[in-house]
Amino acid sequence: MLRTQPTVSASYASDGGHIAYGGGTFEIGTNEALILEVTPPECHFWNIHLGDYWGQSLDYTYRQTSLNGHQAVLDYDGVFRAVVAHRDPGVANWLDTAGNASLGASAAGGSRRLSICRRRPCVR
Predict the structure, then answer these.
(1) Is 17 within the bounds of a domain?
(2) 84 - beta bridge partners?
(3) Contact in structure between 111 and 45 (CB atoms under 8 Å)
(4) CA distances from residue 70 to 3, 4, 43 in whole angstroms, order as listed
(5) Which of 3, 8, 18, 33 sits CB 3.0–4.6 Å from 122 for a disulfide?
(6) Domain annotation covers residue 3
(7) Would you call 121 helix, strand, or coil by DSSP?
(8) Per the structure, how many domains does the chain have?
(9) pLDDT in tens, the chain (124 residues)
């Protein structure tokens, strides 16, 4: 958890001064998919987005490279699972690599820990 410095007032975005960030970098092959799993935090807004090798935003105008808590589809257990792949696997929460093999994923929101894990072969 990142505690903002100085602490944000308790009335700011109703977060009490607590904002959590998480993320990591990964490489993804042509026929691979990365599964991102996040238990959504109890907060008004959370999001996850992809960036390139240098951390720059991908083409979010024409590609689905980010999702937030209002757009995301949660699984039966309340966990958000996104599939990062070069091709649309035909499931909810697909995040498009925009042709990049080296990527970063960042997530923000609330005060719970955000975890990113597991790589699986891409199955179509």
Answers:
(1) no
(2) 34, 95
(3) no
(4) 25, 25, 12
(5) 33
(6) no
(7) strand
(8) 1
(9) 334 344 444 554 544 556 666 778 899 999 999 998 888 877 777 889 999 988 899 999 999 999 998 999 999 999 999 999 999 999 999 999 999 999 988 877 754 444 444 444 444 3
Residue among 115, 69, 109, 75 at smallest CA distance from 92: 75
Outline where DSSP puts E strands in 1-124. Answer: 2-3, 18-19, 21-27, 32-38, 47-51, 66-68, 80-85, 94-96, 102-108, 119-121
Give the C-alpha separation, 49 to 64, whole Å. Answer: 9
What tokens does 73 get?
Answer: 């589809």
Distance CA 96, CA 89 (A): 10
Closest CA to 105 of 31, 36, 11, 2: 36
Give dist(CA 101, CA 91) in Å, integer: 21
The two structure tokens encoding residue 23: 């993320």
The CATH number given to whatever domain includes residue 68 is 2.60.120.1600
Question: Residue 89 falls within a domain, yes or no?
Answer: yes
Structure tokens at 121: 């072969």
